Amino acid sequence: MSKKKIATVWLGGCSGCHMSLLDIDERILEVAKLADIVKSPVVDGKECPEVDICLVEGAVCAVEHVEELLHLRSKAKVLVAFGDCAVNGNVPAMRNWVGLQACLEKAYIASETGDNVGPIPSVGVTALLGRVSPLQEHVKVDYYLPGCPPSADLIFYVVAELLNDRVPDLTQGAKLKYG
Amino acid sequence: MTKIVTINPVTRIEGHARITLHLGDDGKAEKAYFHVNEFRGFEKFCEGRLYTEMPTITPRICGICPTSHSMASAKACDAIQRIIPTDTGVLLRRLVQAAQMMSSHALSFFHLSSPDLLLGFDSDVASRNILGLAAKDPGLAVKGIRLRKLGQEVSERLTGKKIHVLGVVPGGMAFALKEDDRVALLEQLPEALETCKLALDILKRYIDANRKMVDSFAMFESPYLGTVGPDGELDFYDGVLRWVNPDGSILAEAAPSQYRDYIAERSMDFTYLKYPYFKKLGFDKGFYQVGTLGRVNAASKMSTPLAQAEFKAFRSLNSGNPVHGAFYHHYARLIEMLYCVEELRRLLENPGITGMDIQARGHRNDTEGVGHTEAPRGTLFHHYRTDDTGSLTRVNLLIATGQNNPAMNRAIFEVARQYVDGNKITEGALNRVEHAIRCYDPCLSCSTHAIGRMPIDLQLLSPDGQVLDQAVRGS
Q1: Set of chain B residues whose Cβ sits within 8 Å of the Cβ of A45
Q2: Which of A95, A109, A149 sits opposite B41 (nearest CB)?
Q3: Residue A106 falls within a domain, yes or no?
Q4: Does A179 map to a domain?
Q5: CA distance A171 to chain B (A)
Q6: Strand partners, B384
Q7: pLDDT tens profile B222-270
Q8: ∠ at Cα A12 (A62, B75), nearest 5°?
Q9: How does residue B437 score in pLDDT terms, banded at 50, 70 and 90?
Q10: What are the sequence ranges of the domains in chain B?
Q11: CB A125 to CB B36 under 8 A?
Q12: What CATH number is associated with residue A24?
C-alpha cells in the first residue's frame, strides 16, 4: 500500500494550531512513517497535489484565502476544519463587529505611534474580505476539529484515525472542546 | 530599463509574504520590497472589551509567542491598576516567559535553520527539513524536538495549556507551581543544557568553516534595541529600553512607558506590516534591529555564567562591540537559548517559586497603561486606554517582528545584490534569499515550514510582465 499524503494549510489565523501539531513532538516521526507531509504550508495560488487529508487552520479573511480553499477542496479527499478559527471564525471574525475599513483606518491612519504619512496598503498585497467567515461557508467540510488550539493529543488522535481509515470520535470523554 | 523579480516564498512570515525585486540596467537589484500579506485588526476590534480580557485575547495574535503577548498585556493591566505583582507572581511570569523563549529558539534553530547548516544550502530541498534531518541524524533531531517540548511543558504544567497560555493575570499569576512539577522540570534541565551546548558547537563550527560567507551575508550596520536590567544585563521580562549605536555606544535609554517618544511607525503601500523607526533619527536613518541580535548587542552582559562566557566570545568577534550581519542572529539566539536553561534553573531553585502568594489584587486606578516585554523576536509593547467602566477606548500594539521589518527588507536587498545577477536566477540565489529571511526568524516562520519545506517561486519579469526566467521550488 502506498503511503498516504497529508497537506496542512494556514489561512487567516495565528499559527497556534500548527504549533500544537508540532507539539505532538517525537510522534511526528511516527506520522512520517504512515504518511508523507507533501504540503506544509501550501503555497498560495500554486497547485496542491492530490492528498488524502488536508488540515486547514484559520478563517477565511482574504480573497486569496477563498481561492486557496476552493483549490484545496478539489484536491483533498478529507478536508478538516482545523481549530476554532476554521470551525467558527473565532478571533479573526471579531472584526466583523466593527467592519474592515474601521480596522484598517485604526491601524494605518489613526495609530497611536503612526506618523500619519503613509497610506493604507494596497499594492502587491491581497485584498481583504469585508466579512471574515469559517470554512463551511465556502466548501464542504468533512471533519471539524475545534479548539484554540486543539491539543496535540487530540490532533494526533484525529490524524492517526484518519490515516487508518477510521472516523475519529470526539463525542466521548472531554475531547470536544472549544477555546 | 527596470526589470522586476517576484519571489513568492510563502514563508509564513506574519502569514503570507512575497518579495519583489527591481533590477537596474546592470542586472543588479535596485530595490527590494518585502510584502507582508496579513492583517487582522486587533487594535480596533478590541475596543469596547474590558481591559482585563486582553491577556486572554491577545495571545491569539501569534501562536508561536502567545506568552509574550499575554505578558505584555498583563503588565499593561498592572499599570492600569497601578499595582505591583507579588514576588512569586513575577517569578512564575519569568518562568513561563523563559520557557517560551527557549521553545521558540529551539524551533528556530533545530527545526528551521539546522537543516541548512547540517545538510547544506545546496542539498536536496525535498529533505532539507526536520524530517530530513531526522533521517540523517535521528539523535540530533530528537534532541531538538525534546528541547522545544520542555519549554512547552513548563507552560502546560503551570497553566494547563502549551499554547495560548492561561493565567497570566493583572497582579501576577492565577496558578501556583506544585512541588512535584517543579522537581519534574528541574530533572530535565541537564539534558536541555547539553542540547544547547551541542547547538552552539554545531553553529560555531559552521561559522569557523564559512567565516567569509557568514561575515558578508546580509551585512549591514544598524542601531539595536533590547531590554536591560539595572546592571545592563539582558532581561526578557522587565527593565529599561536601550538603543545602542553600531559602535556600541548608547544611543538612548528610556522607560518602556515612554516608548512613544522614541518610536514612530509609517505605513507603506506595499505591505500590511508597518515600518517602525527611531524617531529622533527620522524615517530614513532611524531603522533599528530587535530580537536576539538586538538584545545581545544592546546588553552589557548576561546574568548567568555559561551564557556570559558565550556572550564574551561572541562580542570578541568584533573587539567587544556589537556584531553585525544577519547570520549572527543565529549565534545570538543560541546564547539566549543557553541563558534560558540557566535562567529556568535559577527560577526553579528559588524557594519563592512554589509560593502561594501569586496574585496582587487591584482595580482600575488609571485610565491608561503601557505593558512591555521581550518576545522571542524582539521588544513588544501593548498600550491600552480605558473609560470609567474599564472598557478599552484605544489599543496600540507594537509588535516585535514589525520592528525588524525595515531590517529584513534591507537584508533581502543586500543578499539580492550579492547573489541575484542579470536575467538568470540560480538555485543559490533562491537559497540565500530564503535564508536571509530565516535569520530573522520572523513570526510565523513557523511550524508549517518546519515540517515541510519553504516553497519559492522566483520570477524574473520584464517591464511588460513577460517571464524572462523562473525558478520554482517546493511542493
Answers
A1: 8
A2: A95
A3: no
A4: no
A5: 21
A6: B369, B395
A7: 999 999 999 999 999 999 999 999 999 999 999 999 999 999 999 998 8
A8: 130
A9: confident
A10: 3-38+424-473, 44-362+393-403
A11: yes
A12: 3.40.50.700
